[in-house]
Amino acid sequence: MDAEIGIIGGSGFYSLFENPKKVDVETKYGKPSDSITLGSMCGKKVAFLPRHGSRHSIPPHKVPYRANIDAMANLGVKRILATNAIGSLKEEYAPRDFVFFDQYVNLTNGRADTFFDEDKVAHISAAEPYCPELRGVASEASDRLGIRHHDAGTIVVINGPRFSTKAESRFFSAQGFDVIGMTQYPEATLAREREICYLGIGMVTDYDAGLDGKSEIKAVTAGEVAEVFAGNIENAKRLVSCIIGDIPAANKCSCQNALLGAVMGH
Predict the structure, then answer these.
(1) 51: closest CA among 70, 64, 38, 66?
(2) Alpha carbon 80 to its chain's center
(3) Which of 18, 78, 108, 201 has the fewest CB atoms within 10 Å of its CB?
(4) Is 208 a residue of the active site?
């Protein structure tokens, strides 16, 4: 085993590693987004992969999600912590807040979103797409660090790379969705197909296309997202480090049995 815990996110996490080394990985699904950095953190073996590449050159709809998750699985990873910049659809989910997703709604299209499209069919349950055990660990770590967070939230995943129109944003809010992003699907589902516990960590950077009745809250720009994200990266690193330190050796969740009864004809 090369690693037990994987981190997928922005390049700011390189600095957390002790004795890092980069490895290039090939998978059945092609190359992942970039080289994978292996090292130790809090006494545990960790693998880090920048989702959009080290130069942030891969747009959300072009991320090689299957290769990324397959590479992590091949390295022995059993838990994944995935950080994401997200927009808020509700006033209470404020910029700089952290959100530990419990549900997603997929509105993407054209993405390769399953490992089971060749020699066998599997219908995994996605009723609970995120690991409840990791969400609990993340919540307790946030409380201890004094980081403002939400223990649950539904993220609507859009294709990108553009941001929403005001009409779309109003529609998403009216559906009861909490936040919006571009990369949680199919990443979370592919991890589940590999029976890997998956924690989606959202960092709220903006209020999407603004909020109805709040004229002072303007539509998001890419520059503002980058600025807020950069200002919150230290909290993200503190949080991820703390979560990794607190993850128990044995999982007590059902993620590791996601394929039980799901494979047809075998």
Answers:
(1) 64
(2) 8
(3) 18
(4) yes
Annotated active-site residue in 117, 143, 206, 246? 206
Q: Do the Cβ atoms of 197 and 249 come closer than 8 Å?
A: no
Determine the Cα–Cα distance for residues 123 and 126; give it in Å rounded to an integer.
9
| Helices 65-74, 184-193: crossing angle, 10 deg rounding | 40
Question: Would you state the structure tokens that stand for residue 111, as one six-digit string?
Answer: 């993405």
Q: Which domains does the chain have, with CATH numbers?
A: 5-264 (3.40.50.1580)
Give me the residue label for tokens 């022995």.
76
pTM beyond 0.90, yes or no: yes
Q: What's the gap between Cα 16 and its chain centre?
A: 18
pLDDT, tens only, 125-177: 999 999 999 999 999 999 999 999 999 999 999 999 999 998 999 999 999 99
Annotated catalytic residue 143: no
Token readout for 178 is: 């909490």
CA nearest neighbour of 8 among 46, 59, 62:
46
DSSP helix/strand/coil, 232: helix
